[in-house]
Specification:
Length: 195
């Protein structure tokens, strides 16, 4: 199935959601970044349909390892926050998300600088050394930010149980980059190719 706009076409490679893509799950490619897909479960501007998010999270959770005691779900702001919240509710787990805001003493707070996004710095309040986490994103495109985050978390002594995304853009080789750089297999729900 192909979706076209004035910037690119989108080829759906795998959609086990029984046609959520047909319902407008994927809208368009952002005009400023060809690798940015706008989706209707978290990154849409306007009203979001909670039933779409529930369906996406339930199907993604079915692909994840069983819940472990004390696991935390970790999401990056902004679009990773509703994803982490929804997955935590689905699994009955606690969740942590990043913020760009520095709240006082940051000596004991895990922080991460995403190099490929203008060196944006994120703080993860509530994440502790020795935690086990599942990282979730709404989409993974290049995989560079994910690799940097995984490496930083490991230095901080955090165990990464799984890395998952609702939408994987296979065009840029993120899956291979993440596997080659970290040894972790990316778990994705929907795979698309853009050109």
């Amino acid at each position: 199935m192909n979706y076209k706009d004035k910037y690119t076409s989108i080829q759906v490679i795998d959609d086990p959601t029984n046609g959520l893509v047909k319902l407008g799950l994927i809208d368009r490619v952002d005009s400023d970044r060809k690798s940015k897909i706008t989706n209707n479960f978290v990154s849409q501007i306007g009203v979001l349909d909670p039933n779409v998010l529930k369906t996406v999270i339930k199907k993604l959770n079915d692909k994840l390892p069983l819940k472990t005691a004390g696991e935390k779900i970790l999401g990056l702001q902004y679009s990773g926050v509703p994803m982490a919240t929804a997955l935590a509710l689905e699994r009955g787990s606690r969740f942590v998300f990043s913020t760009a805001t520095n709240f006082g003493n940051i000596q004991d707070v895990f922080s991460f600088t995403e190099g490929h996004r203008n060196n944006s710095k994120y703080y993860f309040y509530g994440l502790e050394k020795g935690d086990s986490v599942i990282i979730i994103e709404d989409e993974v495109t290049s995989g560079k930010g994910m690799v940097d985050l995984i490496k930083a978390l490991r230095i901080y002594n955090v165990d990464i149980v799984a890395v998952c995304t609702a939408l994987e853009t296979v065009t840029f080789g993120a899956r291979d980059l993440i596997k080659n750089e970290t040894g972790i297999d990316l778990i994705s729900l929907i795979k698309i190719d853009i050109n």
